[in-house]
Specification:
The chain folds into two domains: 137 residues, Lipocalin (Beta Barrel), CATH 2.40.128; 103 residues, Avidin-like (Lipocalin), CATH 2.40.128. It is mainly beta. It is built from one helix and 16 strands. Strand 15 and strand 16 form a beta hairpin.
Length: 253
């Protein structure tokens, strides 16, 4: 199990994101895509199955724009939570904005990156038993702090808990000082419930962070898109493979 997680793990990476590059027919002369476009710190959210078992990861990666990146991630894989998993990889971006990533553990990914380098989509390609894909988005700001998470957000969560399907939709307000509150609707294995909650959070300079809810639930997170989006993964329960994204409902001054 430990070996399987280790090899799956770095899968959990790619620093990039969502938007498909529109110019698939562009030539090398007029395309902006090359290794240099993938530069900066990114938050990547990965979901799927590995050997038929639920897998998810949240990574924070910094790319040098010259063909390599490194970082760390949180992995949730079939009852095992692994945190601070080191990541290192080399990559090649083609003029048509597609590319490939080779991780130090042997994992491989194909990718497509947006022409501005803000977002990347990727899929693992080296393991036939793994159906794992994801996207990454550039952090887009300098050093982060608790102030980076401020305002009203809508959050959607999906995954499984104790092997049963789980989903939730939350409305959350963060005060920019380390506290948030909200309410949500939870759908868990055929039962709908409505809940209220409070939580404390801490944001690191690299825009990663953590949340501790009054219910005992904990999450790791990364703030991306200049504070417009938060990506997170549940970390308190080995039986839960749950990830989510929160989007700002309005801009903050």
């Amino acid at each position: 199990m430990k070996y399987a997680i280790g090899s799956i793990t770095r899968v959990a990476v790619l620093t990039a994101a969502l938007t498909l590059c529109g110019g698939a027919t562009a030539s090398a002369l007029d395309s902006p895509c090359s290794n240099s476009i993938l530069k900066g710190t990114y938050g990547a959210l990965i979901r799927g199955t590995a050997s038929g078992l639920p897998f998810a990861a949240l990574d924070v990666v910094t790319s040098n724009g010259s063909g390599s990146f490194s970082g760390s991630g949180t992995i949730a894989y079939n009852g095992v939570i692994s945190q601070n998993v080191p990541i290192s990889a080399s990559y090649l971006i083609k003029p048509d904005c597609s590319g490939r990533v080779s991780f130090s553990n042997g994992a491989q990914q194909d990718l497509v990156i947006s022409e501005d380098g803000e977002e990347v989509q990727f899929i693992r390609t080296d393991q036939l038993d793994d159906q794992v894909s994801g996207d990454a988005r550039r952090v887009g700001q300098g050093a982060c702090s608790n102030l980076s998470l401020r305002g009203k957000f809508g959050a959607s969560l999906n995954g499984s808990a104790s092997g049963l399907p789980f989903a939730a939709l939350d409305s959350v307000t963060a005060d920019g000082s380390g506290s948030l509150s909200g309410k949500g609707t939870v759908s868990y294995n055929g039962t709908i419930s409505r809940v209220a909650f409070t939580a404390a959070y801490a944001i690191n300079p690299d825009c990663s962070g953590s949340i501790a809810f009054d219910t005992g639930t904990t999450q790791n997170l990364v703030v991306v898109g200049k504070g417009s989006e938060v990506r997170f993964i549940r970390t308190d329960s080995a039986d839960a493979v749950v990830t989510g994204e929160a989007t700002a409902l309005r801009s903050t001054p």
